[in-house]
Design a protein that fits this description.
Two copies of one chain form a homodimer. By secondary structure, the first copy, chain A, is α/β, with parallel strands linked by helices. Chain A is globular, with a radius of gyration of 19 Å. The mean pLDDT of chain A is 96. The termini of chain A are far apart. In chain A, a hairpin with a 4-residue loop joins strand 13 and strand 14. Chain A is built from eight helices and 14 strands. Chain A has two domains: 124 residues, Rossmann fold (3-Layer(aba) Sandwich); 127 residues, Hypothetical Protein Tm841, Chain: A,domain 3. At the A-B interface, helix 1, helix 6, helix 7 and strand 11 of A face helix 1, helix 6, helix 7 and strand 11 of B.
């Protein structure tokens, strides 16, 4: 019943985040690390005349968040240890480094440690005269409260908040307007995921949870925390039906509504399988009389080496479409004009 | 010693390729399937006045090759069954669909079935008046002959051939010039890979080869075929040293030579681990007095759900740099101006 390998391409487990960030900034000219910090910022941060957009959280979800730093998305991303919140000091340094005087929006996934540390960091930065606003993403429709949250968890929908807020800030909008569009995306997005295997953290070196060779977990969290139910493994189409129906129940969209969809890989899933899920998802969108404006397929919000996927659906209006379609140039997402 | 999960996000094993292609063309407006064929082409193929660039091979290497169809790279990609060559008929249909009268270059990875079927397809198309040239990529420095090849295998370096030939064709160059730059890349690129786990094919549903929890395979092929040696699992830096030294021995570059590098994931490896490998690779490039012009990190040439990576190094001159830096807009690679 060992359903995953313990082997990893790492050196010392406690060096994973530091070495990963070095390899990331080496590969991408647009990124740099803050001195002595596990924080990645745009090479030109702070960008004069622009609201700063920052995010962060535990590592292990790559390309989230560092991979979304760049033109049109984030100005900075803080990387905590694997599945561990960044510290308030680290977050405050990031906020300071990304403020050009126009204020900073922190996009926070709803986990207790993240929200608390971002709160503290915001208060610290405000004492230094930085205007800081925070939005909390809670798009996971699977569970109301969870192991690490009051309320719902923040998962892959977060990337759409980065994109929309980043585009609005790039237009030169003021902080309150950037907050408004971030909240608008949060109000219109839902996600649910499934795990075929457990992730294996570098520190522990063994599966975070046990899942039999014939079982999958529906509604899984991105840290391997429990979902809604453990069921027999099913064909991809049935899994897609299950996830999609849960997300649609939550969103409660009108017939003919326009949406964008994401099939997100959990880190260990081949792209071919994500496309198979996307095929069924698009059939369902048609069956439910929804109009798909855009669809993404790939690894956006992962859970180390976990096999599985999540499905995100976001209702879009003209404003959200314009923001999501605006140019972006980051390691994890490129949108061309 | 079960080092991988047999669970997959699929429906029937024999529908994997067909369903994957449907999900892929749904997600990307720039792609369409040829009627009744497991072939993906640019939506506007054949492109008037441009040499067509095509590739193909067994499936299971996504985003290769369909993910590289688009502006500035491929005009068409044929998808065989998993790890199985496309048929000559399928390849001929693709060649015909991508010829606007300027001729077609087929970029073929060196596997016996692929080379033979592309040869036959080329002959068939030439009888219909299409000018067809073929280049064979054999960048894998690990083994001279292998399970499926006479001579070396074609692996991740193929993507650079797609890119350079695609850029040259987009400039409006004639077929002989496109062939010349493709051959130039092939002459200057080397790759070597490692597997931490075996891939699991949908049909077989169990590991293609057995690898102990404390072992890795160096010089692995992208179908799980044997490499150079099986060794004890090592830290990422040592693995990177081993792969890099083998590639550099083969390329035999002058001090100060300019190169581009790829750290390629095998499908089941988290991005964080690829960055850790890239960190060490860049240190080595510096140690060996090589100048790194560009570096890519991600999944380009995968082997289903295999954990592991490959390292590609390509010597670049002004011409190759210009071609690799030219704009491209495909699902698997976007290069902006």
């Amino acid at each position: 019943m060992v359903a995953c390998s313990m082997k990893k391409l790492i050196n010392e487990p406690d060096a994973v985040v530091d070495e990963m960030l070095d390899g990331m900034v080496a590969a991408h000219d647009g990124l740099r690390r803050l001195d002595g910090q596990e924080v990645v910022v745009r090479h030109d941060a702070p960008v004069e005349g622009k609201v700063g957009i920052v995010s962060g959280g535990g590592s292990g979800h790559e390309p989230t968040h560092g991979g979304f730093v760049g033109d049109g998305m984030l100005d900075g991303a803080a990387a905590g240890e694997i599945f561990t919140s960044p510290t308030a000091d680290q977050l405050e340094e990031m906020v300071q480094a990304c403020d050009s005087g126009e204020g900073v929006l922190a996009v926070v996934k709803n986990y207790e440690g993240d929200v608390m540390n971002f709160d503290t960091a915001g208060e610290m930065a405000e004492m230094d005269g930085v205007e800081v606003e925070q939005v909390v993403v809670d798009d996971d429709v699977a569970v109301e409260d969870s192991l690490y949250t009051s309320g719902r968890r923040g998962v892959c929908g977060t990337i759409l908040v980065h994109k929309a807020a980043g585009a609005k800030a790039a237009e030169g909008a003021e902080l309150s307007e950037v907050v408004r569009v971030a909240e608008k995306v949060i109000d219109n997005v839902g996600t649910m995921g499934t795990a075929l295997t457990s992730c294996v953290t570098p520190e522990k070196g063994e599966p975070t949870f046990d899942l039999g060779e014939d079982e999958i977990e529906l509604g899984i969290g991105i840290h391997g925390e429990p979902g809604v139910e453990r069921v027999d493994h099913m064909p991809a189409d049935e899994i897609t039906d299950e996830l999609t129906e849960n997300v649609l129940d939550d969103l409660d969209l009108d017939d003919g509504a326009e949406v964008m969809t994401i099939v997100n890989g959990m880190g260990g899933t081949p792209l071919s399988e994500l496309y198979i899920v996307n095929r069924r998802l698009q059939q369902l969108m048609d069956d439910y009389d929804l109009t798909v404006w855009d669809q993404w397929v790939g690894d956006y919000m992962t859970s180390l080496d976990m096999m599985g996927c999540s499905i995100t659906i976001c209702a879009v209006d003209e404003e959200i479409k314009e923001l999501l379609a605006a140019p972006a140039d980051t390691p994890g997402l490129t949108v061309t004009e």
